[in-house]
Predict the 3D structure of the following.
Amino acid sequence: MTVEPAEKLLAPVLSAFWDDPRSWTLDTYRRHEGYQALTKALAMAPDDLIAYVKDSGLRGRGGAGFPTGMKWQFIPQGDNKPHYLVVNADESEPGTCKDIPLLFANPHALIEGIVIACYAIRSHHAFIYLRGEVVPVLRRLHEAVREAYQAGYLGKDIKGTGFDLELTVHAGAGAYICGEETALLDSLEGRRGQPRLRPPFPAVEGLYACPTVVNNVESIASVPAIIHRGKEWFRSMGSEKSPGFTLYSLSGHVARPGQYEGPLGITLRQLLDMGGGMRPGHRLKFWTPGGSSTPMFTEEHLDVPLDYEGVGAAGSMLGTKALQCFDETTCVVRAVTRWTEFYAHESCGKCTPCREGTYWLVQLLRDIEAGKGRAGDLEKLADIADNINGKSFCALGDGAAAPIASSLKYFRAEYEEHIERGGCPFDPARSTAWADTSRTEAHA
Amino acid sequence: MSSEVSLGIPELPAPDYPADVRARLETDAREVIARYPGSRSALLPLLHLVQSEEGYVTRTGIRFCAEMLELTTAEVTAVATFYTMYRRKPSGDYQVGVCTNTLCAVMGGDAIFEELREHLGVGNDETTADGKITLEHIECNAACDFAPVVMVNWEFFDNQTPESAKQLVDDLMAGREVRPTRGAPLCTYKETARILAGFPDLREGAVEATGGAGPASLAGLRLARGEAQARVVGQRGQTPEHAPPAQPPQDDADLHATPTSPSPAEHPSSHDAPRQTAESDPAHPADPVGEHAEQEEGDR
């Protein structure tokens, strides 16, 4: 058996020219075959374009993995209503950090994808809902949209085809819940961001009660490459059910955190291998495959193929491919408590199980972490998490339950230790990025 | 703590802006409203706009939004209080937000926040006496590969330490120019709010500041190109011979000029940085967008 160097598994597509000194400009994008897919797409019939994206097997990169082409196909045609495309750039899931660097370095990939998608679904107004807390990205989006209008890729009669498209960049105002597609739509309508009951689904009644496609940034940005290089090329990567390339975001106690773009189905072992492993002298303890809302994994899951079905079969979700890696210096109770505080803070308050449940989870967890936990608390914790999971309008509640259920599954003894010894056995100073540096200095 | 219970008449309506301010804001507001098929969609940007005028969302600002969009002040207030980026009291010119969500907290965000709290003598969501800095703990800001992260007026200060963060706030208080690791030279919170309302930053060089992607964003690309050596890792904090320091983004050589941006040599993840002179691998089979893309398609 020949062993290929792990780094040869990488396949930069969206990130292929991020190191160009002016990677975000229209000029650079064009030099890298930018907007060539658009010409090809505009020559196709919209329905054929939808079928093509569907055949490519592209699945949503925002977490749920729903087939992108299918979402487009759900838009009723000939209904005499305006159609809308809303790009979800509200990247806020803890650990997730792919769309923001993508938009900072290569915003035109998204804009080209938007024009193609809107042509396919017959939309004449698209929105990019960008979380507000990333002003450097907002600046570049403003500039990229201006450039695209000036070059005739947006506006009236795009490239002489008679197709019109307006694109509005909309900055949010700080609310994790707005990453949920129906809450995002309420927010874009100028309301509190609270999820809507479905049905009706956004494809039928979305923005302003009109047919709306809501897609993640990476999903839409992947479309131009698929059109330009062909669905066969796309399908040559990944697996039958999870074809294509994607951005994996490696963070935490790893030697070389960052963005790694490669075919779906790569494993964390391969990624760590090429990234230089964990920081020297430390071992992987737990990690998330796709953000904090996906049940955590441990060292035993290093060889799980990181694609939709592989991670699903191992009991978690691919999510946003946010691989947050924590080493043995990290207290799992502290990590889960902090995530739970986040969910409690971000719960919009609409559904009782989530609003009340996350509050009580925080109370219990803070007590356990501080050594004030009591016998029976772990059962209560699991019970509350179970009463949130699947019992709210949106997935925020499920996300809150995931770290609790999974950490209790793999690290119950650590929770018990907190209760039995009446405190936390970990020293947080040892987990910091500079921990080993300062120790070296102190001993020098 | 004492809390006054007022049983008197309800608060009088908020005063309006002075006529000239009102006229200027109305022009801006109409431009924002015109971007949307439904006027109410302009509410979030308009709240950013009134924040750019006064630094926080005042009752006057709420009244202005309500009048522009034909909503009640109650409807506007309900929205303004839902989102964390709208301030409800006067705050500093610079909002220093330390990420204390799990990953950044574990990597040192908690220690940084504590250090700043002591150093500045203010707690969460409090402002220094000189009105310069408001300290906040913030949630995950989508930069986990640059942890621990500090945001100042929503520009990225990556890979911070307690020392670098202290230097950062000292520079801000002393009025020295401060540059983020990713983003434009800082403007005030009010000016930032105007960009958020949808008015592009017109300062020269603001869009291109700090170059393409940050170093961590390029980790995989450099490896795929054979520009970085895999599986060779130095001890954190040391600068091993085989790992020369990273190059700053090429079109902004003075990125590291201020004391608040750690120089490449002292950057906490310097040892991970891509190699300056590495052998490239022209036979690389996993570069589908490179010039060999066509022949690779056949190989697959």
Summary: The first strand of chain A starts at residue 84 and ends at 89. The CA atoms of residues 156 and 164 of chain A lie 4 Å apart. The beta strands of chain A are 84-89, 125-130, 166-171, 212-216, 245-252, 258-263, 284-288, 297-298, 322-327. Residues 245-327 of chain A form a domain with the Ubiquitin-like (UB roll) fold (CATH 3.10.20.600).
